[in-house]
Amino acid sequence: MRPVRVLIIDDSATMRKIIGFALASNPAIEVVGEAPDPTEAFRLVDSLDPDVITLDIEMPKMNGIDFLRRVMKHRPRPVIMVSTLTVSGAAVTIEALALGAFDCVAKPTLKDDRSFRDLVEKVIAAGAGRNRARPSRPSAERHDPAPLGAGQASVREKVVAIGASTGGVEALIALLSEFPADCPPTVITQHMPANFTRSFAERLDRMCRPTVQEADDRCQLARGNIYIAPGGERHLEIARRGDGLETRLREGETVSGHRPSVDVLMGSVAAAVGHDAVGVILTGMGKDGAQGLLKMRQCGARTIGQDEQSSLIYGMPRVASEVGAVQKQLPLNRIAREIFSGARSTREGAVLCHS
Q1: Beta strands in 72-165 (DSSP E)
Q2: Rounded to the nearest 5°, which phi and psi values hold at 316?
Q3: Range of lowest pLDDT (17-31, 153-167, 321-335)
Q4: Is there a domain that residue 47 lies in?
Q5: What is the rounded CA–CA span in Å between residue 100 and residue 94?
Q6: Is 269 inside any structural domain?
Q7: 69 and 101 in contact (C-beta within 8 Å)?
Q8: What's the mean per-residue pLDDT of the chain?
C-alpha cells in the first residue's frame, strides 16, 4: 500500500519542521507539502490532493475554523487539528471537531514523545479511512425526541455509561441531543487531551436538555445529569456512597493505552451498578472499552455498540463485538431510542457481581 500523503499547514516554520520530522519518520507516511497560511494551503490542496491535512488553529489571513469549513465543503478529506493545550485553543478545537475534523492532537514538543505517537497514529488512521463515506453529521437544530410513555416505557436503569474516541465529538452531540431532561445519570469517557473536555462539556450543556458537566471527584450522581471524564490526567470511576452513587477520579497508569480509560469506567459501573445499567461503545480507534463493556454484560447490563456504517472509525465497537461484549449493534441514530426503550436484557449467563 502506498504511504498516506500529508499536507502540513502551520504558520510557524519551526512547527512545520517538527511535525514533518515526526511524520516522515514513519514509512507509512509521506509529507507531500507544507503551507504557512490558508491561501497557500488552498493552492496545495488543489495541486497535491493530499490524503490527510494537519491544520493549525491560529494562522494569518484566515483562521483554522474558516479554512476547515471551506475544505469540508469544496474538497472534503480528513483534517487533524493540531492545537495548543489552552482554554481558547480547546474551545476552537471542539468547534472544529463538531464541524467534521477527523481528530485533534496537542502540538508536538521535543519533550513529549506521546504527542508525536498520537499524531502519527491518527494520520495513519485518517489516511486509511479517506475513501470511506463519512457518516452524515447531526443537524445543529435541536428537536424533541419521541415522547416517552406512549408505547415506550421510561428507562429503568440507574446509570448509562458511554465510551468514545475518534469521531466521538460528532457522535456524542448527535446521541445526547436525543436525551430527555430527566435522563438517568450518564457517565462518559471520551478520549481527548487535558483541558479539552471542559470546553466539550460546556458545548454539550448548551446543546442538550440534561445538564452536562466535566466530572469532579466525589460528585453524587443525579438524574438529568451527564458527567464527562476530565481528559488526560485521571481515570473516571463510579462507586457506591450509602444508598447512592458518586464519581471518583483516580490517578493511575494508562489502561488499554488511555487515561482516562473506557475500560476503567465501565468496569467500575459493572461492579457498582451491575444489571441496573446500560453500556454504549461508540466510534473510536483501538480496543479501549471492550473488556469493560464485557464486564457490564456479564453482570446483566444491557450493552450497545455503534455499527460500522455509522462509525467514523470502526475500531472500539468492532473489538467489543468480537469479544462478545455487545448485545445489540445499531446505527448511531437508533442508539438513544434503544437506551430509553425500557427493554430489559436477558439475565441468562450473567455472572454474580457486586451490585
Answers
A1: 79-83, 103-106, 159-164
A2: -60, -45
A3: 153-167
A4: yes
A5: 10
A6: yes
A7: no
A8: 87
